[in-house]
Amino acid sequence: RADVIMGIRGLTAFLDRFPSVWDTLVLKPLTPAEIKEGKQRTIKLAVDGYALLYYLYFSNNFNCVCGGQYGQFAEFTRTYITNLQKNGFSLFVVMDGTIEEVKEQTVVQRETDLVKTVKQLTSAEKYWGKKALPILCRHVFVEVLQALNVKIAFVDGEADKVVAALARANTCCAISKDSDFYVLELPAGYIPVDMLEVNRSGHVVAKRFARSRFLQELGLKSELFPLFASAVGNDFVGLELLRPFHVSLAQEEATLPAGWQGGDKEPTIRDLLIVKVAAFIAKHETESAAIKAILEAAVKQHEQDVANGEEVKTTGDEEEGDKAQVFTKEALEEAIKTSIEQYKLDPALVKAIGPETKLTTGAKCGMSPAVVQKFREGNFDAKTINVLTRGSFWCGGLVEDVDAESAWSSSRPIRSAMYAMLLEGSRKTVSERVRVEGHKFGEEEVEVASSSPLPFSEVLKGADAAKRRKVLFDVLGEAPANVPDNLVLAAACVRYWIKTQAPITSVEVAAVLATMLQRDEDKNIRPSKEARPGWFSIKFAHRLAHLQTTFLSANLLDEILLHPVPAINAAEAYDGEFCHRFHHLQFRAKGISALSEQLRKDGVDWQTFWSMYKAVTDKLDDKIKGSIQENLEGGIMWGPSGPEGRDETVEKNVDLSKLVDAKKGAQAKGVTGGLFGTLLGDEEDDEEDEEEEEEVPVKPASAAGESAAVDDGKKKKKKEDEDEELAKVLAEMEAVDSKRELQKKKEKDRKKKK
């Protein structure tokens, strides 16, 4: 599901300037005295899960370019939900399930659009406002909700109508971000998710749509609201079909409601159109009479356009969600009636959160009550159920190098093993929907083995945990030793990643492992920035995208094996900004203390890091460029070949004691640059820089001087920008360091007082 505001075109913006049709509710937590007196407050909410998920991630401007800020997102979500609960709100969150066949082309188009968005995010100068939800966000979101005992249910298909049906059946507010909810007659009303705010003091400010007041302001009957929405234009009635009707209203008077406030801004064309459509429909007593009038006006205008040679031909450049629709009276009538039907709620939809399902599978396990229950509760992923019931796996878009092979490719062997386990010979292939050549979202058929070492039906019957663990690591590779239980699966995935992405650099591995070992309190107080860092590396971003798809695929395999090891918690295992910053600060680092000092500033214990690094890279030296080794002065340091294996002038068997002596001698003489500063001259650095520069065609002598000046200016500006960005990063690190020391001092003083 893409981050788009679906529904009635222009209505959300129109209502934003219509304060009189909103009721404001302000709540604060009950005081201890009120609780002691026995006061209680319960406000039920039926919540569209994906709408809340997108709102929480992007409203706080978490960075998405670097791959995801899962720890900070988890903490923000936890705080938001906890504050709602303290104020008496009880949430029932409904999540989208499988992708229905009728929606597949829409999803394909949105994923194709997302590929273009990712291209802009990673390389364009103008990328503000572009967003790509990190692929593990939904898993983090669900884990937080489950930990807070929030009721959650995955439904067979889309969640929006189920949310509305639950809200109506339980007389509670609906929460979503779909303007179609304005149309629905819900007893307790509708609150757009971005209008359910929690301020810093923990108070809740909510704005609820006053449906009856809005209709009164526009002079519309309640039963005509669905027709009004359809005639303005929505997901079911495209602009091409409605154009003749809309043009026919051009000469009509537009009187804005008294409560509507434009401020200094003039009303937009769509604002005026909304008012005109409402006035046109309000003239008619019944829905059928209004539809007839709309069709007559549209046909008359269309005939005039044809006669005047002004008929608009379909170009295929419609707004997102529109279908190319050629105007005919019959096509418009059918679209309007289909649209009106969509606003009718079937009471039976409330059963969509229960044990019954319309989903079927040919696999031996079937859609048993146990499988359905795990799916409903979020313990069997919707992607897995999509494989079981539809034979397809959706490789959702993520930030990667869209000019390279999809980052989902390297983890396919993991998913292939999962397909064989799940399907048990019931299908020969699974269709993976994935980015293909040409920046498009396409389809690749993956052959499925007819048998598996451990079929899913046997797992459900209670297969031995040791056997399930063996199957998991037979696919991923040997589990690294001496790694904390909560990081075993993540560490195994890093080993898998090293093998599939080889040659990889030691600084890339170090950045990933340091991320896993940073302290939660440091991670949570570090601010995230939406902007793309000046030192963002598309090459490293693509490699990290491969790692994230490996994390997700391994988690799915672990899930259908009923967790022989704890699942990867993305909030602990991945931090995009941290990874990129660590890599940037260390990929050319020199000096005995560079690595140890970086780990210290990031609050990572070097001994724990060193133990994990050795475990993860064991027997993989031939796949890693660069190295890390122990420092004779204590701590660890980059090895003789440097963080990226570029400093080949240093022999691997060099006597470290002599290097340490050389460093001390250099310091006495005032030589800077640390250990590697004594070994590498400026000439070698310059040669490396020259080798990395792209070759450019020789320019005519007349243009050479001017071009050189321009290039020098650009390089200087880029260098200044990077230096400024780096200075900010270092300042933030020092601030975190100072805050950590202050917290330690306070804790020490507190213990003394005790």
Could you characterize what this model shows?
There is one protein chain. By secondary structure, this protein is of the alpha/beta class. Residues 1-5, 314-323 and 647-707 have low confidence and may be disordered. The protein is built from 30 helices and 15 strands. Strand 9 (392-394), helix 16 (412-423) and strand 10 (429-436) form a beta-alpha-beta unit. The strands form five sheets. A five-stranded parallel sheet has the order 4-3-2-5-6. It has a three-stranded antiparallel sheet with strand order 1-8-7, with helices on one face. A three-stranded mixed sheet has the order 9-10-11. The relative contact order is 0.09.
Shape: globular
In percent, how much strand structure appears in the residues?
A: 5-15%
Helix tally equals 30
Uncertain regions spanning at least 5 consecutive residues: 1-5, 314-323, 647-707
Helix content: 40-55%
What is the number of E strands?
15
Q: In terms of structural class, how would the helical and strand content be classed?
A: alpha/beta
Overall pLDDT level: 86
What's this entry about, in short?
The protein has 30 helices and 15 strands.
Structure keywords:
754 residues; alpha/beta; three-stranded antiparallel sheet; 50% helix; disordered N terminus
